[in-house]
Description:
The chain is globular and about 80 Å long. It has 700 residues and is an alpha+beta fold. The strands form three sheets. A six-stranded mixed β-sheet has the order 1-8-11-7-6-5, with helices on both faces. It has 28 helices and eleven strands. A hairpin with a 5-residue loop joins strand 6 (419-424) and strand 7 (430-437). Among the domains are: 8-179, Up-down Bundle (Glutathione S-transferase Yfyf (Class Pi), Chain A, domain 2); 215-271, no CATH class; 291-373 and 569-628, Neurolysin, domain 3. Bound molecules: zinc ion (ZN). Residues 1-3, 496, 500, 525, 528 line the site of zinc ion (ZN). Zinc ion binds next to strand 1, helix 18 and helix 19.
Amino acid sequence: MKHFGYNFFAILGVVLVAGIILCCRTTCNNFKENEHMYKVNSPADVIALFPQSVKEIEHITDTSIQETKKTLENLIAIKPQDRTFANTFGVLDRISLSNLSIAANVIHVLEMVSPDKALRDAAKQAIVKLQDFEIDYISSNRSLYKALEAYVDGNAKKESLTDTQWFYINETMDDFKRHGLNLSDARLNGVKQLQKDLAVLALNFDTNIAQDNSTITVSKNDLQGLEEDFIAALKKNENGDYIVGVDYPTYTNVMQNCSVEQTRKRLYMAFNNRAYPINESVLKDLIAKRDQLAKKLGFNSYADLDLSDQMVKTPKNAENFIRTLAEKSAPKAKLEFKQLVSDLPQGVTLTKDGKMKPWDSSYVSNYYKKKHFNIDENLISHYFPMEKTVQGLLDIYQKFFSLTFKEETISGPWHEDVKLIAVYDAKNVLLGYLLLDLYPRDNKYSHACHSTIIPATFGPGGEIIPALSLVIANFPKSTASKPSLLKRSDVTTFFHEFGHALHALLGRTEIVSFAGTHVKRDFVEMPSQMLEEWIMQADILKQLSSHYQTGEQLPDPLIKRILELKNFDSGYYVQRQLMMSLLALQYYADGGQKDVYKIYQDLAKLMMFGVDPQPDAHYYASFGHLTGYAAKYYGYMWSKVFALDLFDEIKKHGLLNPETGKKYVHDVLGKGGSAEPMDLLKSFLGREPNQKAFLRDLGL
Ligand SMILES: [Zn+2]
């Protein structure tokens, strides 16, 4: 459930959030300097944004780089006495809306989702070029830094600037320092090289995960417990055996429902060895070089560097937060385990020392839910057919946020599955577009994420520039006899990613670099996790559900049982999140030579009660957050505290109350990253945030 705000332009905590050039497809060269050309005022504009050939990718990369070089040269050439906010920091900020940024975002999207290998490869090459350019000409550009400094030390003191402008100036200068601009030339060169190497390593790590198309081959007999239509939809090899992949819908279904242990075990091993062994060495290099980078920049460790501009500030604070929460959730996790093993399904046995085998845990949990709560997630999914659920979700958000969504008919910018939704405000002004790419495919980014393509901001005359966002997910496809049916966990994922998208579409700020989701990373999961809570409310669940055959809503007794089940495994869930948070922190703690395998095994043994990690499983090789989120995985739990506090407050006023929606947009979403998150929270809550709602909600 990642949020992407591209790292390769992640200077200024902020980013060249990108956009693209409509007129400039393959041959057009009529760039107007400093002008944002990629405007999306119609569905055709959105489609035209995406290059269809290798040549186009190369062209928009090269031309937008040249254009930005010129912009920067002009910025640097201004005499100190002539500097203003607008011609110095303003110009830098607008690079986030330039052809370069938007091209970069579009190209990054293609690298993640294009079914065409040639395009993906060209996109990857272009990204490396763009990353190098960003490092050489922006984040490590001493002349640029000096130009900005000249303004800060000179005319900034005379110009009357807003608080937000000062916030931007301070964040930017801090970020430059965090990129080594206050170091000597020799040291800065070392930093630059490391950053370039790291950008490539991170990209390789991510690509290796996306392009792992591992499968296992099984007979029909090995698939007992799974529904006929699911089996019928599986591909077969020439011997008539079934091919089972590691994509999320397939994996989840098999792990929860297949009664054949050997099948679960084999798929578990395939899933937990995605991108292994290739990513083990990439990860080790990444850790070693990040450690070197941190040391060169004067930090104790990469975690120290990575957290220094976050809400949490230091790894020590993050660890204290985790350990306190781990203590609070451990008793519940232990109790849950005891409950589960008290009634194991037929054929499941514990190890000699009373532990559960990891490929049994989803199966056991599903069995327990069915038997003791009379909850069958497969049957519940019958109430959430994709089309109706999307419509229901849109209805809820339309009401709360006073928006109108309109699905546009398009013919795939990169694949026929892709859908496009136009978003209008209450006055029918186009706020932007949202692309949805929701089904698994080979070589597609395998998790769920949101990506900003064009940030929400204003044009020079104060006019609204329509934003563009993309949600990528991997939900079950329709089969011969059933439409695409969403599990409750899929619906939650959808609400989560849509929460990021709304943040991006409604977070319209004057400073482009603060638009929408360009907030501190340990705050970015707040709006998304807050909206997840909606579907744990009886009336919302009812409103959202519609049986795919009968159109009936979820019956009240079933809703009651679903809600009773809410905290069924919250102890386990919190422990797992905390374990992954610690894993990320320990990987990036002081020291460049890490035994990534042992650290993972030790932590899993320590924190995952009753379920031992398998010696042959290498989950960390596909832990995609280790690149973009780096040491900041704790941010999920950290921001969930705020999410639940806010949700509690919103609930008091009614979940579909548009007045509360307005206030939430005004105080929080609409501000993007233009102020400290704590100030946004306080202004909405009218008090300091606290952990009460969080602990109560998780039953801790
Ligand atoms: Zn997220």
